[in-house]
Amino acid sequence: MNELIPLMVIVPLMAALLISAFSKFNRITKIFAFVVALCLPLIPILSNYGLHYFGGYEPMLDNVTGVMFHPAITYSFTFLQQVFIGAVGLLTFLVIFIYLTKYKEVSGPYLFLLFLGTAAVTAMILTDDIFHMFVFFEILALAQVGIVAASSIDYSYEMALKYMILGSIGSPMMLLGIGFLLALTGSVNITDIASAVHMGLIDATSPVFLLSLALIFFGWLYASGLPPFHTIKSGIYSKAEPHGAALLQSFTVMAMISIVLIMFRIYSSLPIFEVLIVFFSILAMILGVSLALTQTDFRRMIGFLAVGELGFIGLGIGLGTNFSLTAGLFQALNEILITALLFIGFGAIVNATNEVDTRKLGGLLAYHPKVSIMLLIGGLAMAGVPPLNGFQSKLMLVQASLSCGFPELSILAIMVSIATFVVFVKTYYTIFLKPKPNDLELENRDVPRSMVLVMGILLIIIVILGIFPDMVTNGISSFVGGIL
Questions:
Q1: pLDDT at 258 over 70
Q2: pTM (2 decimals)?
Q3: Within the chain, what is the greatest distance between any pair of CA atoms?
Q4: Residue 161 sits in the same domain as residue 286
Q5: 131 three-class SS
Q6: What is the pLDDT of residues 291-345, one digit of tens each?
Q7: Separation of alpha carbons 329 and 392, rounded Å
Q8: Range of the domain at 167
Q9: I need a surface site. Which of 20, 104, 296, 461 has the fewest CB within 10 A?
């Protein structure tokens, strides 16, 4: 067993608890948070691929049926987990770096929530136990609510409360679906459940099995922010601190792919499963970009565009082929990076102007050229302009749709990408290129250098993945081949 694998969860979890307990020691807290955050992207890089069985209980072979059973909670660490855990770990470090440099007195509870959310999504993507996944899914939901509530944004408490109320509906429904799977298979281990389904040990057309799909799928829609939860999901992004919103979006993407990959392993034999994913993904793409076009609050605009980009991820997974799944997961990685850049970049604009209404902004290119250029490149990446990483993943999705015999989905993906480009260019012109309003005060308001540095790091990664996509797509493809 690789003992570093559980440390990916234990380190941020213990850091959250220690920071919460000793947050009154401000200087020590800042140093400790910085060091732990720096370790988060390093641990998955140093870890070897493999499995970790908690308690040392390795799989057991049933000599009668020849089926392998997994009595322990199992963590599986492959290239896919390495890439996504490393990306979220890096983003957590960058977000905490911004936070520590922005405030002289840090909030222990706020840092607690950032580390707790990171630990939760890491456990969700590592675990091979569906109930273990649900436990950390609940922890993640509470962390997201806390991050929004702890933000110094108007009406953040109201938005956090709305999200928590919806969670009180979505989470129990998912748990009930997991309970049905346990009743049918006698196990909560995902590999064991999938084996029972594919070996025909349970009836895949039984009402109970289909009901479990419906319940877990509903919980997945809540976790992902796909319709009908797209409005509340974009709302929590707009009511969080910009760096917090960047991390919240990465949490959403991680939860989305963690749960959908579990569902794919269990329910992929049901044709209705892929139809449902494609249907709700198309809805997210259309509604996301349409609602973004109507926004004057650029935070809400980015939030809706982020929801629309989730639809591209779901589209790739819903098509169900090796190439489409690879494209969808690559799109997920790209969205984590691109959306983080945009949230932090537009957060820098808020910091410099104390304004979020695009109608009251203008002429910022002359005052903040670095931020404007990096935001422009980030927006082009989200719209799928070559040679950036968003172009590579969306091109793969278009090719996957064509190869699956759905040219209309390819056309839709291209049209949504064009609409995204239009939305972003319109917003960019309004903020940076049109004449500055006379009543807009910009004197002595600088953008924090930490934000510019973080944007530069994210932009470098975006460009590298756009030029060399094979760095991650080959490994993702190998992972996908193992679950198909």
A1: yes
A2: 0.92
A3: 82
A4: no
A5: helix
A6: 988 888 888 888 889 888 999 999 999 998 999 999 999 999 999 999 999 999 8
A7: 12
A8: 1-172+226-258
A9: 104
